[in-house]
Amino acid sequence: MKSIRVLLALSLFAAAPVRAANYDNEDWAAFGHVLTLIQQVVRVGNHPYPDQAMAELFAGRNPEANQAVASLFAGATAEMPAEYRDKFAAIGRDIASYALKHPLPSAVDAISTDRSLQARKDLNAMGLRYYDESQFLEAVKRNDQLAAELFIAARGVNLEARTWSGRSALDIARDNKNTQLAELLSRSLPAKR
């Protein structure tokens, strides 16, 4: 969770320019954007799969965080010449790209591996095979939230697998009006490149 601490520190650092003596609407707007970023980071920490959620955040798939960062950037660079603003934006994109390409240290991988191993054991105890895509799709079809979460955590099935009729697990969950499962599947799908 080192990345969460770093992101939180950066968010608080971004709030530092808020002047103590003369609070105006721009200052409160900037403070609101920092609070939005902090809220998103806390949500990542509470996510069942924080690594995936952090990758989604860094990949720009969080509209609230995107808007907050864009607004903070606009405010911080409002009086900056355009050529420097463009360089500053390029540096920010490079940092985000670097964070995506260089995942967290192996301690997180060990936790993730332990979680996957436990999920595989739990599926086996339920009489399910962690690598069986048809069993995964059947679990989604019957709205079995627990089994679906375990299949995702076990990392043994292709989450984009399709039934013989061409429907994915996400399609099935949406058709079943199971928004909670659909959101979990949507967040857990691998990032498109």
Description:
- Helix content is 70%, strand content 0%.
- It is built from ten helices and no strands.
- Helix 2 runs antiparallel to helix 4 and helix 9 packs antiparallel against helix 10.
- The longest helix is centred in the N-terminal third of the chain and has 22 residues.
- The two termini are 24 Å apart.
Notable characteristics:
single chain; 193 residues; mainly alpha
In short:
The protein is 70% helix and 0% strand. The chain has 193 residues and is an all-alpha fold. The longest helix is centred in the first third of the chain and has 22 residues, at 25-46.
Layout of secondary structure:
Layout: H1 2-15, H2 25-46, H3 50-58, H4 63-76, H5 82-101, H6 106-125, H7 133-141, H8 145-154, H9 169-175, H10 179-188
Helix pairs in contact: 1-2, 2-3, 2-4, 6-8, 7-8, 7-9, 8-10, 9-10
